Amino acid sequence: MAAALMSVLDISIVNVALSDIRASFGTPLDQIAWVSTGYMMANVVVIPMTGWLQRRFGYRKYFTFSIILFTVASVLCGLSWNLPSLVAFRILQGMGGGAIIPTSQAILFARYPREEHGMAGALFGLGAVTGPLLGPTVGGLLIEAASWHWIFLINVPVGLFAAYMAWRYIEQPHFEPSMEKVDRNGIALLAVGMACLQYVLEEGNREDWFDSRLITLLAVIAGIALVTFVVHELETPSPVVDLRVFANRSYSAATGVNFLVGTALFSGSFLFSLFCGSVMRYEALDIGLIFLKGSAIQILLMPLIGKFGGKVDGRFLIGFGILGMSFSLWTNGHLATRVDEITLITPVFIRACSLGFIFVPLSVMALSNLRPEQRGNASGLFNLTRELGGSIGTAWMSSALSRSTQANVTAITSHVDVYGQVAQEQVSQMTGAMAARGVLNPTGAAYGLLGQRINAQALVRAFNTNFLILAVLFVCALVLVAMLQKADPTVKVEGAH
C-alpha cells in the first residue's frame, strides 16, 4: 500500500510542477511533456512483463528491487541538471514504478484467503486512490515552500520504508525460479510496440497526428510490432506475456470494463482540469483542492465496500458504479462559463463515490478465480488496459476538444449578425466601458472582446460535448458487466496465509 501510494502520487504530483520545471531548464513548451511521456513509455513496457519477472525472481526480490529502483531514480530526478537527464531518470523511474501495483495485487491475492479478497483489495486501494487525491495539493505546497526538486525527493522516506517492509515480511515459501527460456523476441516486440504506441498517443495531438511523418512511421511500427507480438506469444511455449488468460470470460470482460474505466477516468479528469484552468482561470493548487474536496469520500467508502460488498453480487455493485460515473460525466456536460465551487465539486464527488463501487469488486472478480500462477501475468495485463485506456482517451479528448472548439466558433459566428440590434447594443456597451478606461481604440477593443466571448462560449460547448460523449461511451460498459461471472465462494487460493 505504501509503495502504491508512492508510485501513483508521483504521477499526479509531476503534472503540477511542469511549468516550474520548464522555467528552471528554459525548456520549450512542446518539449516539457517528455517528463511525463518518458515515464509512461517505460511504464507500459514493464507492466505486461511483471508476471514473467515474478516467476523468474519471486515476489520478494522483484518487488523490493522495483521499489528501490523507483526510489533511487526519484533521487536522480531531484538532482537532474537539464531536461535530457530528467527524462532519462524518469524512464528509469517508470521501469521501477510499472511493476509496483501489479506485483502488489498479485501478492495480496496470494496471501489472503478468498473470502478476505474484498477487504484486502479495498485497504490496498486506499493507497492507490490517496495518491491522486493528495498529488496536486502536496505538489503545489512543496513547490511554493521549496522547489520542484522536492516533488521527487519526497519519495525517499516512503520508498525506503516500503522496501524494508517488503524485504522483511514478504515470504514465498517453496519458491523455485522459473527456468523457462527467455522470450527475447517477445520482449523486443513488446518494448518497441508499446513504446511507439505510447509516443503516438502522447505526442500525436501536438504533431497534428498523421500530418507528421514521425507519428505516421511510429504508428505503423507499433501496429506491426504489436500484431506480431500477439501472434508470437500465442505460438511460443514460454511467452513473456501469457495472452491465453483471456480465455477466461470473466477476466476478459473485467479487463474490458477496466479499459473503459481508464478512458473515462483519465480523460474525464483531463477535461475537468483543463476546464478549471482555461475557463475558470483556476491555479494548479486550486484545481487540486477541488479534486481533494470532491474525492476525499473514497477514503471512507472503499473500506466499507470491502467489508460489506461481499454480501452483494459484485456485478450489481459494478453496474451501480458505472451508472453513477456516467451520471457524473453527464453532469459535467452541462457546465457554463461561470459556475460556483459547489457546482464543480458535485460531479467530482459523484465520480469518487462511483469509483469506489467499481474498483474493489472489479479487481476481485477479474483475478480471484484464476490459477495462482496466472495472477501475476493477469494483474499486469489488467493494469495495462487501464493505463492504455487513459492514454487513448486523453489523446482522443485532446484532439476532439480542439476540433469541436473550431466547429463551434464557426457555428456561433454564423449566427451572429455584427450589424444586428443585439450585437450593436453589446458593442456599444463595451465601447463605452473601454472608453471609460482610457483605451485608445475603444471600438476595436470592443469587437475584440466580443470575439473573446464567442471563443469562450465555443470552448465551453466543446467541453460539454466531450463530457457527454464520455458519458455515453461509459454506459456501454454495462454490456461487459453482463458477461462477468459471479465469483465462486468455494475457490481457495493456494499459499494463502
TrEMBL record:
InterPro entries: EmrB-like, MFS, MFS_dom, MFS_trans_sf. GO terms for cellular component: plasma membrane. Coiled coil: none annotated. It is found in: Cell membrane. Keywords: Cell membrane, Membrane, Transmembrane, Transmembrane helix, Transport. The chain crosses the membrane at residues 32-50, 62-81, 87-110, 122-143, 149-170, 182-201, 213-231, 251-275, 287-305, 317-336, 348-367, 463-484. It is a multi-pass membrane protein. One of its GO terms (molecular function) is transmembrane transporter activity. Belongs to the major facilitator superfamily. EmrB family. PANTHER family: MAJOR FACILITATOR SUPERFAMILY MULTIDRUG TRANSPORTER MFSC. This is DHA2 family efflux MFS transporter permease subunit. It comes from Corallococcus carmarthensis.
